[in-house]
Amino acid sequence: MDIIGLIPSFGNIAWTLAAFIVALSIIVAVHEYGHYIVGRWCGIHAEVFSLGFGPVLWSRTDRRGTTWQVAALPLGGYVKFLGDADAASGRDGSAIGAMGTDERRRTMHGAPLWARAATVAAGPAFNFAMAILVFAGVFWAGGIVTDRPVVGQLRALPFEGAALRPGDRILAVGGIETPDTAALGAALDTLDPAAVVPYRVERDGTAITVDGPFPLPPLVDVVQPRSAAGDAGLRAGDVVLAVDGAPIVAFRELRDRVGASGGQPLTLTVWRAGETFEVTLRPKRMDMPRPEGGFETRWLLGLNGGMAFDPETRTPGPLEGLWMGAQQTWAIIATSLSALGHIVSGAISPCNLQGPIGMAETSGESAAAGPEQFIWFIAMLSTAVGLMNLFPVPVLDGGHLVFHAYEAVTRRPPSDRALRVLMSAGFALLIGLMVFALTNDLFCP
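The chain above was modelled as a monomer; its predicted structure follows.
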């Protein structure tokens, strides 16, 4: 056995696991802290705040009597409140029965209904709030494209004739007026990639015409995790010069060739930082959300294209950034719910449901792509965790909220026997879903 040859694989696995543990630990800590802090505000005492399960590696007890601990299995966490029999907030009847009225009020099961519901809902709410803040932070740090079609920085390309300069305001492209960024985007779809593109620009207060590169070259801007392109080692900044030996000059030509491939292997000629090489890869069949709703099945490499130049950006204001973060979070929720509905109805492949292996691989590839993409992934995963916990399944927060809604309507909680049966059924359903997702990770292409 070639032990030395296995070292890179072990390194990749370690990196993937480390990235996944970091991402999951942050998300779980935020989720459980939501339960803890809102419970505390509502007068419910937390006995244990645990990050992870199993043997305790570290712990300390604060002045309020809450034990904070880190356990050996970093696959989740929990808050155990006073009167709970276990980490799933099962009722410890004997312990609660021996308590006085004041002490019983400090338990999850003896607190008013509003306090219990608020404490349960706080976990997913904190996940959503975290996602909104992280997305907003990315927008604040990276900026957003302005309404003015102004050249920011030129991208490194293997094409000549790039006469544009940073600061040029594009007044027209290919003879089409571009008064704003939206008009520029619409004009780009009409250009012939094989022709020299004339730009009319305002430079230093004077309107001049210059020849420039095709605005949407076959430039790789983003490589999606767990994609054919990612597996083949393509990177942001690569430029695809040819597909199966046929030259291309526009990203849409690459997209069309991949879409028409039928999943057959393609050989790409790639330019990277002055060097040219070839790579062969097989497109993956994927179900992609459509802007108008629903999904379409396409052959994809997992690449997003970029412009020949970075457009001018600005920093959004505090409220604007938060609103954009909220819109991004809602878009993920809506797309996830739509995908789940399409999977259940059989409209799209169940392979779209990732399990722990898939999420770990995505974590590792996102971390390898850079801090910004890893942070973005954490926010997306936080949104997914918050949404999943709201599903009306016993043992999840959504299931507890259903119990509280039942109590609000009937004026009495479900019986202990009914709760035990429902919790067992919910646990079995959750395990079955995890096994199904794990099977997808192992056997889906």
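Residues 1-10 have pLDDT under 50 and may be disordered.
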